[in-house]
Description:
The structure is a homodimer of 474-residue chains. With 474 residues, the first copy, chain A, is of the alpha+beta class.
Amino acid sequence: MAQLVxxxxxxxxxxGAWYTSVIKKADLVDYSTxxxxxxxxxxxxxxxxxxxxxxxxxxxxxxxxxxQMPMLIPESLLNVEKDHVxxxxxxxxWVTQGGEETLEERLCVRPTxxxxxxxxxxxxIKSYRDLPLLYxxxxxxxxxxxxxxxxxxxxxxxxxxxxxxxETSEEAKQETKRMFHIYEKFQREYLALPVIxxxxxxxxxxxxxxxxxxxxxxxxxxxxxxNGTSHYFGQNFAKAFGIQFLNRxxxxxYPYQTSWGVTTRMIGAVIMTHSDDYGLVLPPKIAPxxxxxxxxxxxxxxLEKIQEIAKMLRENDITTTIxxxxxxxxxxxxxxxxxxxxxxxxLGPRDYENHTVTLVRxxxxxxxxxxxxxxxxxxxKLLEEIQNHLYQRALERRNAMLYEAKTYQEFKQIAxxxxxxxxxxxxxxxxxxxxxxxxTTLKSRCILEDEVAEGTCPCCGEKALYKVxxxxxx
Amino acid sequence: MAQLVxxxxxxxxxxGAWYTSVIKKADLVDYSTxxxxxxxxxxxxxxxxxxxxxxxxxxxxxxxxxxQMPMLIPESLLNVEKDHVxxxxxxxxWVTQGGEETLEERLCVRPTxxxxxxxxxxxxIKSYRDLPLLYxxxxxxxxxxxxxxxxxxxxxxxxxxxxxxxETSEEAKQETKRMFHIYEKFQREYLALPVIxxxxxxxxxxxxxxxxxxxxxxxxxxxxxxNGTSHYFGQNFAKAFGIQFLNRxxxxxYPYQTSWGVTTRMIGAVIMTHSDDYGLVLPPKIAPxxxxxxxxxxxxxxLEKIQEIAKMLRENDITTTIxxxxxxxxxxxxxxxxxxxxxxxxLGPRDYENHTVTLVRxxxxxxxxxxxxxxxxxxxKLLEEIQNHLYQRALERRNAMLYEAKTYQEFKQIAxxxxxxxxxxxxxxxxxxxxxxxxTTLKSRCILEDEVAEGTCPCCGEKALYKVxxxxxx
Lengths: 474, 474
């Protein structure tokens, strides 16, 4: 046990090193010769598949259709919308050669696909009868990041990008909100992540958008992780691309657009929120394997009983794995903890005699002894408890790191001394946002739309228009 | 009706133009500004999703795990295996710039991922206990094709690539066969495609492989479509990459490798095999929508009944769509045929009075009148019949275009006069294969492993070693 665990630095000592150990030791990722890109190993990819299955069903239930766009974008197409290209051109990878031939026009590997969708929308939207168009795509994107960290910031990212077109501005705005609500609900119910939803400032919004809504999660160390965004574009791209439809009054009009996306970064958020010094901790709803069964000793009766219990659990839709390796029980227990199986089931000779097993829940490491007959019921109960407990624990920790500052002095002091998010009044000026960043390294997380600002901006003293959270970010 | 259909050139007049019309009019694909790449529209992508679901379950059932590798490969990594790089380097897209910076080393967009998997295998394979490794990845690849055709040959391709490593040569060879059997069964049972499975010649095998097995489908026009491959690599890549494991005798040994893949090309094969001059025809097992319900007239009772029938069908796991547009019945019928819904259900005033509906099966366009009570039963029966009939029809057509030639004269004559595959004895020399191609444009499809060659090669007169099919290809 000591062997496996001793290599994991405590998350309270060095959070970055701890994170790297956990993702490596739990076999979630491996580094690749392709610099800045990661290999998502089967155990990590299985988590992504679980996330995809739930979200994809939600998207379809809400009327969205999947499709597939090209992955390469001609430079001239990327250049159509001015703000967009200004935001993305500095961080894209360029294909300049195809086979032996030097291309006449460079192609970038998609960093996001708004321009490709608009190019297509222009072909297929003729009338209000063609609207709304509710599209989604699961794919890989590339952004040429300088510093990378597996799941959180990578040159290649697995994600989904929704792209929709609407008849009216209201409908498009509703779509923007509907989707961040789906994200928020998914992250709460499945990932056990408490998140704050709000609007990005002008400075932080998506390149080319009219407004961007963000899902802000807080990691164990108080850092913010932008864990999903939903954009309202108004008619910006439609005008740039000349997309028009014949409206109900038989007049040509530009449609209203949205886009929204979440990425494999969600896996990083889950790890940085729930895991501990023993390794990975996964919410049962997205854990690829729920119960790890460990036979103690080599007694045939015990091995047979373990197989029987595993079968019984699988028949109740509870995924299992059995550790029948030659390793010592202590090593197996540690490995089970590193891998973050929500429940470990131990069966040794004494248990066998008593017709009982020991269940160990991964979140608290608490043990409980249950009879053979009670296993399925108890496992189901525990899984539910773990799921709920992870959310509550994360919520309490997060809430304990939410601050509000009245004066700039107070703000700077909290920023320096305490990890977490700090709420302040804000005048709305980018200059104040930039000054705050320069003074404290904190960036605006989001504008809280449901809260009313009173008084003045602590930075410049002018009238406050918004309540905003600031925080350090990944 | 005429309007929609008249734009589809008959497949007997111009097969290429017919294919292009069908895929466009059925809303399967659209062309993109990114030259050589296609947009797979929702209806086309839904077919792919159905294929993926079945295959993915098969792969998992047979013990394979999904993961995700980077999409970019450093040039030096691509260069490790000599035959492989020679085969692929001429047709890859190169990323040479990242953001503002010119890269020190070019990266190619993966044309296939053997080298990435080997690079990873080298890190994780230590002992025979780590074997077999049975991996699969769903992703997009890029091959810089000069001439492209949607689904059949595109610069960007959606596919799956399986990559496995084994302790023994036998086990790896078995894996190669197991996977092409899974492909063959899937194509027969789901895509209703009769296929011929065999071994590729030295000239046609995968770059770097020891042997390649291929799934050869025959299109309506007699052309061959390579519709899946499974490769056995022996220790070629393992040696090139220095991948070794400690075997059961505690000695270092190179593991044995396979890879196998199918692509969105399967959608093209389905279209070119089953569709007709009225548009798309889809095997029910991969059709995104099984029944298209068309109310005739605007009678509220009829509209309500249609909704009720649709609900009843959905409750029986039969997917539906209702055409409630303003278009004329004739236009709706034509559209239903263009889109290839396996069954069209019509309900007009007279039907309603008689408590009946009309069912039209897409494969034969035959009509049958059934009572309200019989709908579900009859639809289920028809779907099964359509699935079987499509396979039988394709099989008979294919068999009628299989020839065998004894002399080179006979071979050349059939090649010139009749579309299809021609079987001949072959000496095994690449020079004969090349001469045949030069004389007739026909390429070898596959060596028939279960058939014994007798006599001489009709091309050179030397002793025949194999029976081989030749054919024109896409």
